[in-house]
Amino acid sequence: MTAVLAVLLWPRFWLVVEEGEALRYAFPAASGSDFVLRWTHSVEKEDWEERFRIQTDGNLMLVETRFKTFGAGVPAAVGRETRLEQGWVIMSGIDRPVDPLHVQAAEAEHYHLSFQGRTLDLTHPGVPPILTFTTREAPLLMMLPARFGTWWRQWRSP
């Protein structure tokens, strides 16, 4: 019983995704962990990806962006390296703090989150949710509703 209480009450580090005030996802995380947001650009209709890293202080950092076409507002180079790889323009070494990260996950743009080998759909029909990504230290007991929701959405998603 003591071991179960320790697991439930011991603070852990989490990557959390909130929709308004509601905790939508909570993933056990560690500094140095990466996650990727992927969506379809609303004008160019091409996939874009941005890679974020959890820093040792828990803050989120944009480290890389990948896309297939240049359009209005896209700089020629960002970060320390820009290269072309298998049809993707990849800009790495960006290292731009983005904590918290706010994303409007419009259904037409097909937002997805890839983290720890899993990919989750972040969109749903209706009003596009505003999602907030951040980190938090909290016990498992406080994260259980989000963890259960994450497992449920993973189980029923294709």
Short précis:
InterPro entries: DUF1850 (IPR015001). Helices cover 16% and strands 48% of the residues.
Description:
Pfam families: DUF1850. InterPro entries: DUF1850 (IPR015001). The protein has 158 residues and is an alpha+beta fold. It has one domain. It is 16% helix and 48% strand. Strands 6-7-5-4-3-9-10 form a seven-stranded antiparallel sheet, with no helix packed on it. It has a four-stranded antiparallel sheet with strand order 2-1-11-8. The protein is globular. It starts with a helix and ends with a helix. The C terminus is likely disordered.
Largest sheet: 7 strands, antiparallel
Order of helices and strands: HEEEEEEEEEEEH
How far is the first residue's CA from the last residue's CA? 37 Å
- Give the CA-based shape: globular
Beta strands, count: 11
Oligomer: single chain
Strand order of the largest sheet: 6-7-5-4-3-9-10
Using only CA atoms, what is the Rg? 17 Å
Mean pLDDT: 84
Structural class: alpha+beta
Helix content: 10-25%
As residue ranges, the low-confidence spans are: 149-158
Which strand-content bin applies to the residues? over 45%
How many domains make up the coordinates? 1
Number of helices: 2
